[in-house]
């Protein structure tokens, strides 16, 4: 009956069946197929429809729904078996942009699956996971999928398109959550918080519509913001402002020095200051004995020798 209604109403663009139990798996499959083949539906909410236990035996439910723009599957008691189906498909980068998985039964092991799937996903821009069974371990795992600060390489390889929503507005943050990764999940989606001079540099615009797909330029900008934050932005979460985080640079070959110095130049724009903090540069230089010749130049007042301008 419902499937026929969907098929016959060709002008539908948004279908919400929230809190309507669909007990029969064949009914769910027929409905989802009708939705997937519909010429106009791009948003579908099946929240609290009791279909969680159907996903492992009928993975085509996920495969079909994830061709839409936005899907709600919250409150369906989806467990780890369902999480595996969802993550396997997210990993192959389906076209879905918005996914609501609030109030299911996911645990810390599922958090790792989700984080892994996001490494190869560039289409999902909003993933809501509020009200699941994550501890601080799982939450940190998820946040590190968008800002993995173990090294500059892992920062670069993080997901730069998806915003994670793990807490309600005003909800207290549990103990044990890494403040740096929490901040970066929030900050790089709020370009209006950047200084005016930084928006062009980081390919951001204060009026960017988060409802649109993330462009490649925005991805480049977000990646640059994260790498700068890893290098010199730690002061924003309680440590010494302007200090260079040397753990990222200890093994850096000298051939990359000009590029890193350019990063410090960008850092001045990121923080809204007009000049580079030269102390940051010499923290780097003095930490590497083999670069002592640069310090000797500085002692002769040869600041112009440093390649700080592009």
Outline of this structure?
With 310 residues, this protein is mainly alpha-helical.
- Coarse shape: elongated
Mean pLDDT: 79
| Structural class computed from helices and strand pairing | mainly alpha
Helix-strand sequence: HEHEHEHEHEHHEHHHHHH
Cα distance spanning the termini: 65 Å
What's the Cα radius of gyration? Answer: 23 Å
Largest sheet: 6 strands, parallel
Strand content: 5-15%
Number of strands: 6
- Order of strands, main sheet, comes to 1-2-3-4-5-6
Helix tally equals 13
Description:
The chain is mostly helical and 310 residues long. 40% of the residues lie in helices and 6% in strands. It has 13 helices and 6 strands. Strands 1-2-3-4-5-6 form a 6-stranded parallel beta sheet, with no helix packed on it. Helix 4 links the parallel strand 3 and strand 4. Helix 4 runs parallel beside helix 5, helix 5 runs parallel beside helix 6 and helix 10 packs across helix 11. The protein is elongated and about 75 Å long.
List keywords for this structure.
310 residues, six-stranded parallel beta sheet, 6 strands, 6% strand
Strands, helices and their partners?
Elements: H1 2-8, E1 14-16, H2 25-37, E2 43-45, H3 60-65, E3 70-72, H4 80-90, E4 98-100, H5 108-118, E5 126-128, H6 136-143, H7 152-156, E6 163-165, H8 179-187, H9 196-201, H10 216-232, H11 257-270, H12 278-286, H13 292-299
Parallel strand pairs: 1-2, 2-3, 3-4, 4-5, 5-6
């Amino acid at each position: 009956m419902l499937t026929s209604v969907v098929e016959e109403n060709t002008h539908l663009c948004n279908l919400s069946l929230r809190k309507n139990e669909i007990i029969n798996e064949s009914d769910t499959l027929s409905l989802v197929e009708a939705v997937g083949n519909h010429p106009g539906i791009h948003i579908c909410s099946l929240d609290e429809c009791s279909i969680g236990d159907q996903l492992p035996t009928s993975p085509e439910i996920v495969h079909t729904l994830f061709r839409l723009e936005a899907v709600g599957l919250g409150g369906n008691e989806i467990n780890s078996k369902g999480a595996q189906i969802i993550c396997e498909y997210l990993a192959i980068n389906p076209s879905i942009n918005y996914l609501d998985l609030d109030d299911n039964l996911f645990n810390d092991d599922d958090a790792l699956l989700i984080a892994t799937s996001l490494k190869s996903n560039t289409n999902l821009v909003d993933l809501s996971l509020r009200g699941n069974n994550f501890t601080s371990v799982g939450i940190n795992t998820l946040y590190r999928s968008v800002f993995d600060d173990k090294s500059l390489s892992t920062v670069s390889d993080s997901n730069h398109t998806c915003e994670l929503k793990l807490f309600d507005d005003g909800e207290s943050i549990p103990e044990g959550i890494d403040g740096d990764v929490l901040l970066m999940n929030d900050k790089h989606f709020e370009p209006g918080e950047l200084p005016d001079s930084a928006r062009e540099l980081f390919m951001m615009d204060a009026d960017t519509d988060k409802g649109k797909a993330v462009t490649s330029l925005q991805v480049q900008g977000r990646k640059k913001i994260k790498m700068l934050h890893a290098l010199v932005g730690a002061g924003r979460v309680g440590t010494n402002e302007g200090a260079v985080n040397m753990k990222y640079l200890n093994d850096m070959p000298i051939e990359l020095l000009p590029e890193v110095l350019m990063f410090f130049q960008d850092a001045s724009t990121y923080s809204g200051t007009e000049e580079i903090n030269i102390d940051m540069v010499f923290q780097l230089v003095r930490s590497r004995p083999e670069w002592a010749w640069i310090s000797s130049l500085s002692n002769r007042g040869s600041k112009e020798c440093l390649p700080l301008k592009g």
